[in-house]
Amino acid sequence: MEGVETKSFSLVEGSQIGSKFSTCLAENVEGFQQCVKEILKLIEQDGNLSETTSEFCDGKKSKLTTHVAELSRMHAVLVDQHAHLIGEFSKDCESKIEKQYLDSYDSSSPQVTQMFTPDKTSNTRKCRTPIGLDALLSSGGGGSYASRREGSESSFSLSSDSDSESFMSINKLRISPVNDDALKVKETKAPEVQTLVDENTNLKECNRRLQEEVSIYVADISVRNDQITELSRNLDQSMSDIGRLKMEVSEKCRSVNDLNKHLDSLKLKKDEVTAKVDTLRAEKRSQDNLVRELETCLNSIQVEHVGVLSSFDNAQEVIDELKLKVMELEREVVRQREVIFDTAEEKREVISIGAA
């Protein structure tokens, strides 16, 4: 009855330990999966973005590096927890089997006491391991613990061949309950351990694939960085060209402003010339009116001149007639003078004659 109670207690305690490590393992697996989701999200964002900047790529590269480091850390933690779980499970099974074996038999028996006491005849002072425990330690649940104890099989060996033969012959029939308990514990814990091993293997494979994908994307990011560098150089050149063109445009604008000012001055001059032209046109119209008046006067004068000329011709004829009359009168005067002279001569002769 006491052996059954001890066995039940050991199973409950083993279940508590397994539950504790299963919880820790589940938390680490969940964190691992969360990091994987973050990396996939960043990869998807990288696929959706057509244009990136150098700062964005550097930030994304930093995030990917952080997530990969976190994955590596979680993987190491999972490996350590797996090894620790296997070791604790092996130690727990060993201690519980020893306790069950001691509770099942009388501890005063010299053969049983000798199983778990130091070998006084051996210089190595190593402990012996009951038969059946080796089967547990060599199984999947105790592989890590057994591997840590390779090269030290002498720790669980008998100090001499005679002691081994005596031990085997005395305890051959007594050890079968321990073997049964060990097999039951192995059957109970082996699926959990195998599950953890499978999960660890899957996580390793997933980590390997993710590291390969991360390497690919890091290389892609490097290529993108080179492209961004080239685009930055092109952008700098374009900005330089834009600056030069802006300076040229500014100079052209200044030239246009100068031309606009010159055009304004020309417009003012044009307005002045237009005003002068209008004035000259008004003067010309007045002069035209004056010319028309003068022409009218001239026409009237010409008409008068024609009349005068006709009158002049008539007057000329009268003058000619008068000249002829004058000439006749002059001849008459000359004739009268001659007559008068002759008369006077005759009178002087008469007088002279009369005086004489």
3D structure, described in words:
With 356 residues, this protein is mainly alpha-helical. It has a domain at 2-240. Helices cover 86% and strands 0% of the residues. The chain contains 7 helices and no strands. The chain has helices at residues 2-48, 54-104, 110-115, 133-137, 143-148, 161-171, 176-355. α2 (54-104) packs antiparallel against α7. The longest helix has 180 residues, at 176-355. The radius of gyration is 74 Å and the shape is rod-shaped. The N and C termini lie far apart (244 Å). Mean pLDDT is 70; it is low at 1-14 and 105-164. It comes from Helianthus annuus (Common sunflower). Residues 140-164 are annotated as: Disordered.
- Tally of DSSP β-strands: 0
Major sheet characteristics: none
Structure annotation, total helices = 7
- As a whole number of angstroms, the C-alpha radius of gyration is 74 Å
Euclidean distance between termini CA atoms: 244 Å
**Chain-averaged pLDDT:** 70
Mass-distribution shape: rod-shaped
Structural class: mainly alpha
- Helix content percent band: over 70%
Region (Disordered): 140-164
InterPro entries: NET_actin-binding_domain
Biased composition (Low complexity): 153-164
Coiled coil: 256-283, 312-339
